[in-house]
Amino acid sequence: MLKQPGDARAQKVSLWRRTKNYAATWFAIAAAVLVLAPLLAVFAYVLIKGAGSVNLAFLTQTPKPPGELGGGMANAMVGSVLILGVASAIGVPLGIGCGIYLAEYGRGRLGDLVRFTADVLNGVPSIVIGMAVYGLIVIRQKHFSGFSGGVALGIMMIPTIARATEEMLLMVPNVVREAALGLGIPKWRTTLSVSLRTASAGVITGCMLAFARVAGETAPLLFTAFGNQFWNLKLNQPMAAVSLQVYVYALSPYDDWHRQAWAGALILIVMIVAAVAAVRIATSRGMLKGVS
Amino acid sequence: MGVGIEVRGLNAYYGKLLALKSIDMTVAPNQVTAVIGPSGCGKSTFVRCLNRMHETIPEARAEGTVIVGDMNVYDNDPVEVRRRIGMVFQKPNPFPTMSIYGNVAAGLKLNGFRNRKQIDELVERSLKLAALWDEVKDELHKKSGASLSGGQQQRLCIARSLAVEPDILLMDEPASALDPISTSKIEELIFQLKQHYTVVIVTHNMQQAARVAEFTGFFLMGSLIEYEKTEKIFTTPSDKRTEDYITGRFG
Amino acid sequence: MNNGPEGSDPKQKPVTAIPTLAHTAAERKQGLASSVLERIRQTQPRSSRIPDAAFSVLILLTAISVFAIVVFVAWELVDKSRLSLHEFGIGFFVGHDWDPVSGEFGAVPFVYGTLVSSFLGLLIAVPLAVGVAVYVTEMCPIRLRAIISFLVELLAAIPSVIYGLWGIFVLAPLLREYVEPFLAKTLGWTGLFSGPMFGIGMLAAGIILSIMVIPIIASITREVLTAVPQNQREAVLALGATRWEMIRMGVLRNARIGIVGGIILGLGRALGETIAVTMVIGNNPQVSKSLFAPGYTMASVIANEFTEATGDLYLSALVEIGLALFLVTLIVNALARLLVWSITGGSAGRARA
Q1: pTM greater than 0.90 (yes/no)
Q2: Which neighbouring-strand residues pair with B34?
Q3: Looking at residues C78-91, what average pLDDT do you find?
Q4: Is the dihedral angle over the CA atoms C271, C273, C277, C281 positive or is it negative?
Q5: What average pLDDT score do residues B179-207 get?
Q6: pLDDT tens, residue by residue, A201-258
Q7: C151 with C33, same domain?
Q8: Cross-chain CB nearest to C59 (options A101, A178, A276)
Q9: Dist CA B185 CA A15 (whole Å)
């Protein structure tokens, strides 16, 4: 007889299996809570400890000598903007260009090599990039500079932007390109005005993500921009940056500097959140031309 | 020896959409019942309500009574229900990370079987029932489930379902993704299986229904229009809509 | 697509020289989609050939520049570490003493610190990250899915220095006051939780690293879990499985290669993390069994001592550590991407590293 009573006929799902099921569900929920808790904690502490210190003085003054109370991070904020400006000027064109190459021209072995290289660059620790730029630029110029800091950060932006650009361009359907070419538009203009324009939302998002990522970086600036306690708008001199300043202040023995570190952290977070939010708003409102 | 199915007043919903309207059907033990109808008529939904797979889709639910043998399907733990009712899907879905042996034994391992010898026996028996044993007996542990041909994969899935000794076997268009030779092997298999199991098979192929099933139910837009001996439905259907479908006027 | 006039008058502007449909169809049959573009390009007026060529050269240059940057970085590291490589050879990585004053440079304390802090970070991060990913893809109500995923990604957006700041002033005191005494009382016998409790130390570094690495592992895990076809889940359920059994047998099992890839990617990130770790690890080049003790990582010693390094040998030793870090992260990342691509088949392994 085919069906034997007993063995394959466990009537109810065993308690052990049911217990495992419940335990797994609760573990997963606990994991979600434990993962999100630090997010909440960090945001909360930065907000609570930093908000009170972000006052006019903080936003307009330069640091006071160690041990003295007061002062601000005005020079660091300006410095960050300048350094990030240099970084973007280097990272965005090179990143987009590389992305265009990977999507439109380099579908063969050379393209694979470049793609692999961009991946390698993405994985290099930021401190190592800082060291390399130190050797390439700082030693040759014999001084630290905001420019070298911008170069280091720009290098870090390239892989993210290149990959986003490539992905977005690959999503543009071939018929769009063929239609443009069939109308007599030369290839270079097709790539720029048609393909890139169609992909622009994603490319800009990629750029902003890269920007947000490097805006908070400290390690690459340690041996390039180096930091500066005074006003400096010259890119070929050591330059302050908010992330650097927070780092130095946090490690110092002065309570007032600790207080200012939290304020600087708040500024950093606001900067990053603002950048990401601005992109979201701009793309969703269709303020970018050529976006569907 | 065999087990029958009793369906009364079955309603099935996808969110707010009523997909099955008050289905009544009685399936006798050890017979093959075909479920036919045009695309979207609810035949797959019906069959998936029998083993409570329908409710695994988000926002889907079912009401009504389904009794399999002595088990009230909607009154019991769905996990237990699904063990007692086996299902074979349209596209063969063996587990690619497991060997042939592992695939067939999967259901047994889930149900707490530990004895290696016992599992070996059950695996062999299931593969024989599925007419696959001779083709794979030398490679049980070496080949992965996904390395077989389409027809073999489907028979593997049948063996996998049979290993846990269900009462009923549900088949949702089991041969529609297969070539004609594999299809006829599967149909032959169904013919053999009905000695031991009660089979409900969804098919869009009317010739297939005529070949394998004793009873056939015709579904249209969520309702069971006609449920009759297969012979009668295909020669002298009572309802005009059935006749229109059979003669190919739509669907 | 345009159905323009057939054939072309060579005297007319080639704007009207649109290829016939038949010709295009024949080309497509050969499966050469790009040949259509080729043909179209060949019918372009000469006046756009030069700008086209110039443009492609420009683009090629940007691609080459990326390649050049990596080569320069690698060369710079090798060049500046030559002195130290020559002086110490392989012994550099088995030497225990880091004594700049006497010119003794052994990297063992840093290698140890990097490995222990990274593995501790992974130990904490992996179950949590995989747990969150499973929760989001298999268990969570649909409305919550996007929100929770977004929040987990947000963890990756917080700059390293802010984690360090939070680590020093919030986490370390917490560890010092509550967690470490508790661990010492319950698990002190293992030898892992003994000695003075500063809050700052290897344990703090491991925890901070885990927080920073969770988003990467969770994101990749989520992608590979979603890539598992629905019919695998149904196959397991139809055999009579509980939800957890379905997840275990039908989803996790199929995705395990990709998950391992994600974990390795997380390892790569942890190995190279500098600032947050430097701020909470204590910066003491000691090899110590206890997790309460301060340590030192390869990245931290570079960050702390690079600008103070006196003498060429000192600097060279630090660069050599940087070179080692470069090579290790290169290998680890390459391995990880290989694994992830084998599952998702493409550039889906985009790392928010």
Answers
A1: no
A2: B201, B216
A3: 85
A4: positive
A5: 91
A6: 888 888 988 998 899 999 999 999 998 888 989 889 999 999 999 999 999 999 999 9
A7: no
A8: A101
A9: 41
Q: Does domain B5-246 correspond to CATH entry 3.40.50.300?
A: yes
* Cα C67-C70-C73 angle, rounded to 5 deg: 150
Tally the domains of chain C.
2
Give dist(CA A158, CA A121) in Å, integer: 8
Task: Indicate yes or no: CB of B95 within 8 angstroms of CB of C240.
Answer: no
Chain length of chain B? 251
Residues with Cβ within 8 Å of residue B242, at least 6 apart in sequence: B218, B225, B226, B233
Of all residues in chain C, the one with the smallest CA distance to B160 is C239
Q: In a 10 Å sphere around its CB, with 0-12 CB exposed, 13-18 middle and 19+ buried, how is residue A152 labelled?
A: buried
B86 touches chain C (CB under 8 A): yes
Q: How far apart are CA A106 and CA A97, in angstroms?
A: 12
C38 shares its domain with C175: no
Structure tokens at C332: 């680890």
Closest CA to C217 of C161, C281, C260: C260
With CA atoms as reference, report the closest residue to B146 among B94, B75, B107: B94
Tokens at residue A278, please? Answer: 């601005």
* CB contact at 8 A, B239 and B225: yes
Q: Is residue C231 part of a domain?
A: yes
Q: 3-state DSSP call for residue C2?
A: coil
- CATH label, A79-241, candidates 3.20.70.20, 3.40.50.1010, 3.40.50.970, 1.10.3720.10: 1.10.3720.10
| Full domain range(s) for residue C311 | 87-344
Q: What is the pLDDT of residues C118-152, one digit of tens each?
A: 999 999 999 999 999 999 999 999 899 988 998 99
Domain positions in chain A: 79-241
Q: What gap in Å lies between CA C260 and CA C334, rounded to an integer?
A: 13
CA B196 remoteness from chain centre = 14
Q: Alpha carbon B193 to chain centroid distance? A: 12
Name residues 22-61 of chain B within 8 A of C (Cβ).
51, 53, 56, 58
Residues whose CB is less than 8 angstroms from the CB of residue A50 and which lie 6 or more positions away in sequence, other chains included: A262, A263, A264, A265, A266, A267
Residues C5, C105, single domain; the answer is no
Q: Tell me whether residues B112 and A7 touch, CB distance under 8 A.
A: no
DSSP assignment of C101-129: TTTEE--HHHHHHHHHHHHHHHHHHHHHH
Same domain, C135 and C250: yes
* CB contacts, 8 Å: A3 with chain B: 165, 196
Residue C112 and residue C292 in contact, taking contact as beta carbons nearer than 8 Å: no
Beta bridge partners of B171: B88, B201
Query: Quick count: other Cβ atoms within 10 Å of Cβ C276?
Result: 27
Domain CATH for C298: 1.10.3720.10
Question: Are the CB atoms for C134 and C247 separated by under 8 Å?
Answer: yes
